[in-house]
Amino acid sequence: MSSDPFIRSGLQPHQIPADFVVDQRHGSYTAADHETWSKLHRRQFELLRGRVCDEYFAGLAALGIAADGIPDFRDLNRALKAATGWEIVAVPGLVPDRVFFSHLAERRFPAGFWIRRPEEFDYIEEPDIFHDVFGHVPLLMNPAYADFVAAYGAAGLRYGDPEDLARLARLYWYSVEFGLVETDQGLRIFGAGIASSPGETVYALESGKPNRIAFDPVRVMRTRYKIDDFQQSYFVLPGFETMPDLSAEPLERAMAQARALPELEADALIAEDRRIAIDDRRRRPAA
Fold it and tell me: Where are the domains of the chain?
């Protein structure tokens, strides 16, 4: 989660405080920046119809995240704070792990405030404001999801061993970033890494290549992942009310089990896996 935060933001190192929180500088966005946001929003909004969970669209609407331009964090925070106690804070890029965990534990979501250049329209290596705000923020209006993300931040502060932190990161990766959820309408997206990617939005639900496996925290903590390609495995929750319990004792029990078992490659299947099939209803999103 750590990276050089200065290249994209235009800020110098001496301008970055210890918590990495800076002013969004909403008035500094150019017309081209707002147009990039609008194009990204319009394309992804249409692709997500019938593919993303209802809770995501409910959050998007309640926050007023629209295609007319880059949102002002101050406007979003008024609705977000009232709903779940969360707020968005602007950061210049990816932040150190401890800073990231601390913000989440205090219900502050660190979002990059810069937006990709037109030539990066389809792919960027480091998350920008579109990924962070369009992808992540709408579900922070959902209480169960919001509580899980805060608990993840608190959990990160309790662990210091790099291998334990890697296991914990997999819980976040395979849920908050690349999670799927079962609904009455079929399999749906809730992970922000999918929801902000046009290619993976289609691939995650319609390709026959990846594994889709019922979510089990120990299984997930054992499973490596790739950051530079579509996922080889997705883990599926039966609903937001079943988000893993990350309080101290349940998480440590799961962590101890994961430590005692071998790690698994991203495409691995094991006998205990309950695989989730994609049927025709899930392959063909509703109009």
Answer: 6-283
Domain 6-283 class in CATH: mainly alpha
Task: Please tell me the distance from the alpha carbon of residue 227 to that of residue 24, in angstroms, as a whole number.
Answer: 27
Place of tokens 């405030």: 113
- Between CA 94 and CA 34 the distance in angstroms is 22
**pLDDT classification of 287: cutoffs 50, 70, 90:** very low
The DSSP output letter for 184 is: T
Q: Residue 33 to residues 55, 91, 286: CA-CA distances in angstroms?
A: 28, 17, 32
Task: Indicate whether 6 pLDDT > 90.
Answer: no
% of the chain exceeding 70 in pLDDT: 92
Q: Is 140 helix (H, G, I), strand (E, B) or coil?
A: helix
How many Å apart are CA 79 and CA 75, to the nearest integer?
Answer: 7
What is the pLDDT, as a whole number, of residue 5?
A: 42
Q: Residue 1 and residue 266: Cα distance in Å, rounded? A: 20
The answer to whether 265 and 224 have CB atoms below 8 angstroms apart is yes
In 75-176, where do the E strands start and end? 87-91, 108-112
Q: What are the phi and psi torsion angles at 278 (to 5°)?
A: -105, 115
Angle, helices 73-84 vs 143-158, to 10°: value is 90
- At 151, which amino acid appears? A
Tell me the pLDDT band of 118, cut-offs 50, 70 and 90: confident
Rounded to whole angstroms, the Cα distance separating 18 from 95 reads 10
d(CA 123, CA 12): 26
